[in-house]
Design brief:
The protein has helices at about 5-15, 20-35, 70-80, 100-105, 125-130, 145-150, 190-205, 270-300, 330-335, 360-365, and strands at about 45-55, 80-85, 85-90, 135-140, 155-160, 170-175, 185, 210-215, 305-315, 340, 350, 355. The protein is α/β, with parallel strands linked by helices. The strands form two sheets. Strands 7-6-5-4-8-1-9-10-2-11 form a ten-stranded mixed sheet, with helices on both faces. It starts with a helix and ends with a helix. About 45% of the residues are buried.
Length: about 375
């Protein structure tokens, strides 16, 4: 169902700026007819829970064939929903790939048509708010304070920036007057605190209006420091090397000394990469547990049946593939991203093979 706010904004703009105004009038009449005849017209609009991870390879989800990693809650989403196996981040204009990836996702615009700070660009949370949704955001926001405050009506436990020590996260809260609290250091692990904030919102929501709850984890982004007991979960049986492991990349990519690539010495060795993977898997499994806590609250409040749940990541990560560790390349392991949708009207257990971009989620949700 297309939100009425989207129709009003886009069609009115088209009407006022197009020399072919009579054609625009006809289009408006047609759209109005299509909407009012649609089976969903007048029914309760679904809530949206958007779960977003950071630097997560597609092959770190049990349901996708990785029998070593433990991700029972993500497996549930993949079992109950539709996944897109060929979903991609379009690319980047600099080494911090998550900035343009998130800008594209939030604006629905392609790489060279979006603004990294989302200036003068409507975000999908902002559009949902215009359409009558209660909008809430928590977690990592790498696209500037002002765009967050414009996008969400409520915000708590927000990391403004790209990364931090996961046990010493610098945080802000969006206050009632839409100004920001003073920066404070979170008391807990990043994934746990972001899940806590989402849970507080879900438990307090009065259901008089549909909600959009955006939860942007900063895991499994480095520093790879999973909390106990996840720090030793894979110690006895470290993950195997990627099939395309190399000790060193065969040529200079132009990003060989970027921060991601100096987290381990050259040439890469099997013990070092397997330990990095063990820590990485621990971060994913801990985040999965926190996702499970959020899903449990949806179940307890009877919200699951009318909530569209989206799980995605901003991009992947090399983690030893081709001798690289980071995401600053166009290899499959870095640009392929997990995308799965679950909810009313969405087929269960389906896999889509079409080429899609991460930022296609904006119009899809609308």
């Amino acid at each position: 169902m297309i939100p009425s706010g989207l129709i009003h904004r886009e069609m009115l703009t088209l009407f006022l700026t197009s020399p072919r105004r009579w054609r625009c009038i006809a289009m408006l009449v047609l759209l109005a007819g299509l909407l009012t005849s649609h089976p969903a017209y007048g029914q309760q609009r679904p809530n949206v829970l958007f779960l977003f991870s950071d630097d997560q390879r597609v092959d770190t989800i049990g349901a996708l064939g990785n029998h070593l990693i433990q991700t029972p809650h993500l497996d549930r989403l993949y079992r109950d929903g539709t996944r897109f196996d060929r979903a991609y981040c379009m690319g980047s204009i600099h080494g911090a790939v998550c900035v343009p990836s998130r800008a594209m996702l939030l604006s629905g615009k392609t790489l060279y048509h979006t603004n990294m700070q989302l200036k003068d660009q409507t975000t999908f949370p902002e559009l949902f708010g215009d359409a009558g949704y209660v909008t809430f955001g928590t977690g990592k926001w790498h696209n500037g304070k002002s765009s967050f405050a414009r996008s969400f009506q409520q915000g708590n436990t927000v990391l403004i920036g790209g990364m931090s020590d996961h046990s010493q996260v610098p945080l802000h809260d969006l206050q009632a007057d839409h100004t920001w609290s003073e920066k404070y250091t979170g008391d807990g692990f990043s994934s746990t605190m972001f899940a806590d904030a989402a849970i507080r919102f879900l438990q307090s929501h009065d259901n008089s209006r549909p909600f959009l709850c955006y939860v942007a984890f900063s895991a499994p982004h480095d520093p790879r420091m999973p909390p106990p007991p996840f720090d030793t979960m894979y110690a006895d049986n470290p993950p195997p090397l990627p099939a395309n492991f190399l000790p060193q990349h065969p040529f200079n990519t132009g990003q060989m000394t970027i921060r991601d690539e100096v987290l381990a010495p050259w040439p890469r060795t099997e013990p070092v990469v397997r330990q990095q993977l063990a820590d990485y898997y621990g971060m994913v499994s801990h985040m999965d547990e926190q996702i499970g806590r959020i899903l449990e609250v949806l179940d307890q409040r009877g919200l699951t049946e009318n909530t569209v749940i989206v799980f995605a990541s901003d991009h992947g990560l090399a983690m030893g593939s081709h001798g690289l560790l980071g995401k600053q390349s166009l290899y499959e392991h870095s640009m392929n991203t997990p995308v799965c949708l679950v909810g009313p009207g969405i087929p269960a257990g389906q896999a889509g093979n079409a080429l899609v971009y991460l930022h296609d989620l904006f119009p899809t949700l609308c």
